[in-house]
Amino acid sequence: MGYELREKPPAPIEYVRLRERAELGVRTEATAKRGLENGIYAVTIRRDDDLVGMGRLVGDDGCFYKLVDIAVAPDHQDQGLGTRIVEALVEYVEKNAPPSAYVNLVSNVDGFYERFGFEAIDLDQTGMYRRM
């Protein structure tokens, strides 16, 4: 396959480009730099030094962990790369998070994350967000 998983975040410009390629939304290099510096853990997947996949853990590294930026470039999908990314993130949490930690994610991919032990949230509340 020629893919290499690395335990480090991408460079800010790579992060911005991959998010755009994977249609995750636009971020600036400045905000990417700030965010990447403050993450808990990150993995990238490269092929010939080209960033083709990534995933990160953010949170307070104690009570809360959130899987974010799980992305695979469209021309590299269906190769099991998303699975490799999530496996690495889940392995980190299983080894490092306290037993009472809350781990979550937001997904638009039905049936993918359940195999890693995630369950849909049955909300009796309204989820909310605020975009700056």
Write structural notes for this entry.
It contains three helices and five strands. By secondary structure, the protein is an alpha+beta fold. The longest helix is centred in the C-terminal third of the chain and has 16 residues, at 81-96. It starts with a strand and ends in a 27-residue tail after the last strand. Strands 1-2-3-4-5 form a five-stranded mixed β-sheet. Helix 1 crosses helix 2 (29-37). Helices cover 27% and strands 26% of the residues. The chain has a single domain (3-116), classed as Gcn5-related N-acetyltransferase (GNAT) (Aminopeptidase).
Question: Which SSEs are present, and which pair or pack?
Answer:
Layout: E1 3-6, H1 12-21, H2 29-37, E2 41-47, E3 50-59, E4 64-72, H3 81-96, E5 102-105
Parallel strand pairs: 4-5
Antiparallel strand pairs: 1-2, 2-3, 3-4
